[in-house]
Amino acid sequence: MTGRRYALFLGCNVPVRNLGYELAARRVAAALEIELVDLPGFRCCGYPLKALDSYAALLVAAHNLCQAEAAGLPIVTLCNACSGTLTEADLELKEDADLRKRVNGDLARVGLRYQGTTRVQHFLRVLDSSPGRQEIRRRVSRPLDSLQIAVHYGCHYFRPTRVYHRYGVDPREDAEAPEALDRLVTATGAASISYEGKNDCCGGGLMGLRPDLAREQAGRKVREAQGAGADALLVACPTCGLNFSNSQPDDQELTILYFPQLLGLALGLDPDELGLELNQISADGVREKLGV
């Protein structure tokens, strides 16, 4: 994976509420010789606007795509919603000449022009590529074979499916039975366990309307993972991670890990480098099992 360079799109949640996720992603990328470049022109992906004004959301997303194009870099994201929003915007603009002309007319006011020369990928997909998995297996120095991990993908990781398929993401990838996180867990030596409701939503979409139901849904998934014997629940989305962390059972908490944190442990990195102490739920149980 030597020589891979990406514009790192952090989005809104990660740098404010998921610092451990960001730290781990940066440290793991460096360990795998992936260069993450910070672009000062990046803004919100546009997702919060979609329900109110889809064109405004598209314009915001296009602004970000232009920043990456100017730098000559593909975009890598840490957030499922950011990944989906930017991917969908890039696809729409590439496929619809009239829409592209309208957007470029508005972007011209700030000196920008969308050309369709960049590409968007979630960091998980970068690591789950064939070269990525091979490199990870080669570099694992602390096998995590004592851990049982329950994975959670999040709704936006592969939805809308038609968008991702048209965008060229592996058509064998199934939104109803994704496997990327499971493969990553296996590459670290840990066991990816099955549990009831594995592909259910975390409930985050309800937070603005019914936070009680959102917490109930997230809490149910945490208990299901605990019941299956999980040492931790592994997530690829900052909103999912926050919702699970804020919806823990009263009697016994379950560690919530972001996937670069688990991978970093397997690569032999110090837990303090991976931001584990910044997670809302203690990872001491995981550290004790690993002796780190």
Automatic annotation (TrEMBL):
**What EC number is given for this enzyme?**
1.3.5.-
Please list the GO terms describing molecular function: oxidoreductase activity
Q: Which UniProt keywords apply?
A: Oxidoreductase
Annotated Cysteine-rich domain residues: 6-86, 149-244
Query: Which Pfam families does this entry report, sorted A to Z?
Result: CCG (PF02754)
In which domain of life is the source organism classified? Answer: Bacteria
PANTHER family found in the cross-reference section: COB--COM HETERODISULFIDE REDUCTASE SUBUNIT B 1
Q: What name does UniProt use for this protein? A: 8-methylmenaquinol:fumarate reductase membrane anchor subunit
Name the species this protein comes from.
Neomoorella thermoacetica (Clostridium thermoaceticum)
Gene name, Swiss-Prot/TrEMBL: sdhE_3
